[in-house]
Specification:
Blueprint: E1 5-8, H1 14-23, E2 28-31, H2 44-54, E3 56-60, H3 66-75, E4 83-86, H4 92-105, E5 115-118
Parallel strand pairs: 1-2, 1-3, 3-4, 4-5
């Protein structure tokens, strides 16, 4: 069993971090701008490097530019644990449930080097 650590993108509502921690307090969930993680305003390529080096999976609603940044990152021979991207009009309750499920029941490399849209169903 793998328990992922999540880094929540700065453009997402703080409610995602709050709800995840309320429902699953043993998860490690940080948001861009929190202490010990990149500050708000950090460029996406730098975010990718940081969370790769620190063992996090990114949760984002950035469906526009993140795919290109990921391709560039992979072209440099780098790797990531994965990006979980919110679907348009995603229900926060379903997103929270899926993030908990992914953290607890995923294989170590299940989301590696790819973008997966959540909710999963």
């Amino acid at each position: 069993m793998t328990i992922y650590k999540y880094l929540i993108d700065e453009n997402m509502l703080p409610l995602y971090q709050e709800q995840l921690l309320a429902k699953q307090p043993d998860l490690i969930v940080r948001a861009v701008g929190d202490p010990e993680v990149p500050p708000k305003g950090t460029k996406d390529p730098e975010i990718l490097c940081w969370y790769e080096e620190n063992g996090y999976i990114l949760v984002t609603n950035n469906r526009r530019s993140m795919p290109m940044h990921l391709l560039d990152h992979l072209a440099e021979g780098r790797h990531i644990l994965g990006i979980l991207s919110l679907r348009k009009k995603a229900d926060i309750g379903q997103v929270i449930e899926d993030l908990i499920l992914i953290a607890e029941a995923s294989f170590e490399d299940e989301y590696q080097d790819k973008i997966t849209f959540i909710p999963l169903r």
